[in-house]
Amino acid sequence: MSQDSAAVPDAARKLAARRRREIVAVLLFSGGPIFESSIPLSVFGIDRQDAGVPRYRLLVCAGEDAPLRTTGGLELSAPYGLEAISRAGTVVVPAWRSITQAPPPAALDALRRAHEEGARIVGLCTGAFVLAAAGLLDGRPATTHWMYAPTLAKRYPSVHVDPRELFVDDGDVLTSAGTAAGIDLCLHIVRTDHGADAANALARRLVVPPRRTASDMGHQRYLDRSLPEEIGADPLAEVVAWALEHLHEQFDVETLAARAYMSRRTFDRRFRSLTGSAPLQWLITQRVLQAQRLLETSDYSVDEVAGRCGFRSPVALRGHFRRQLGASPAAYRAAYRARRPQGGAPETALRPERAERGPMGSGGAERFSAAAVAGHGPAAALAAADAGEAGKPTSDAFAARIPETPVSRSAGRPVLPSQRERPVG
User: Fold this and answer.
1) pLDDT at 264
2) Which of 37, 45, 133, 247 is most buried, most CB within 10 Å of its CB?
């Protein structure tokens, strides 16, 4: 789902008469981070009509019994309780204190009731876990902080988690990625309600860009080795750590299964249930990521990079690299260095071209674990560099791509072409 789409689900609900879209309830919990909590308070709670920003009415609601303690030991006192949500046409959950804890049942009931009555429900960062616990994300695309996206996909397999987006608008349910992405989503809400001029005026007052995309921040660079936090306590953690430390060696999934003292079938099942990703696809992705790092930080030739990343040949590296990042290794390096001052650090954050998007379910790690960063120099420079290696120019081959694994919409998991794979490379 596009982060700027305003598509309304087929089963859109009519807003109850007592609810008004411009009345925004912000649901706060004890232990929530202060930054995320302050975003909707600042966007919807300050009168900026002098700057051309329409006014919202803010209701700050306690999602559980007071006192509410937040980051740094601060103690908050919300002027309203859950009953005030019954008047709001927009309900925002800015964050949740811990993805391992269940939200209060009363708060979940209030969210379900608001949604049934047509309210727009918004989850910022880990607030997506509260929406998922309430069942509001079932069968929908959603996003959250990249670090917790694998856990969200694994715990709620019916949710199509896409952490490549800064935010996802699914009509009456909206979610944002981590921390500052909440600002982007709140600006999007203002833009949807009152138009671009109002959103741009608010952005000027907040001194933030009026419209960002994930690629503007090199957002996908942070997704490279993300795995569910529960893996730390699982026996497979040692195998995963070994694989990451030995990417320069040539080994396959059979080797990993043997190290885990499991059959290949059992290992595949355990790895997928734990991470949401097929082990072969995960391993290929990690090798490509390692190649990406070496291309950025070393002067190794492409052949040497292939050997240091465990690929059996440069041809194998080029094939996997292009499928995941949309460019050849040589073109990627040329674009990276074109954006880099002589002898210094990169001048700006690298920005990939727009990624091919698609919702994903519990098999989400296969779809997002590639850090698709293909540089943001002129397309002509990329094409020229790639043509120099391949002998012919390419046209649209440089849009950053996620591994092209077909997805079963009914099952919510990628469908592998075969269970018998050859060793990587």
Assistant:
1) 93
2) 37
Q: Are 55 and 19 in contact (CB under 8 A)?
A: no
Length of the chain counted residue by residue: 425
Which are the contacts of 341, defined by CB distance < 8 A and separation ≥ 6?
Answer: 347
Neighbours of 111 (CB within 10 A): 26
> What's the mean per-residue pLDDT of the chain?
76
- 280: exposed, middle or buried (C-beta count within 10 Å: 0-12, 13-18, 19+)? buried
pTM of the full structure: 0.56
DSSP summary character for residue 395:
S
Q: Which two tokens stand for residue 206?
A: 């907040």
- What are the C-alpha distances in Å from 363 to residues 38, 108, 283, 370, 418? 33, 26, 15, 14, 16
* Number of other residues whose CB lies within 10 A of the CB of residue 98: 12
Q: Which of 121, 98, 91, 104 is nearest to 64 (CA)?
A: 104
Separation between Cα atoms, residue 190 and residue 355, nearest integer Å = 25
pLDDT tens digits for 326-355?
Answer: 789 998 888 888 766 544 443 333 333 333
Beta carbons within 10 angstroms of residue 241's beta carbon: 12
**Helix, strand, coil % over all residues of the chain, rounded to 5:** 45, 10, 45
**Max CA distance (Å), the chain:** 68
Pick the closest to residue 350 from 327, 368, 366 (CA basis).
327
132 φ/ψ angles, rounded to the nearest 5 degrees: -65, -40
In whole angstroms, what is the distance from residue 249 CA to residue 324 CA? 21
Pairing of strands 88-93, 120-123: parallel
pLDDT-wise least confident of 168-177, 252-261, 272-281: 272-281
Cβ atoms of 96 and 126 within 8 Å: the answer is yes
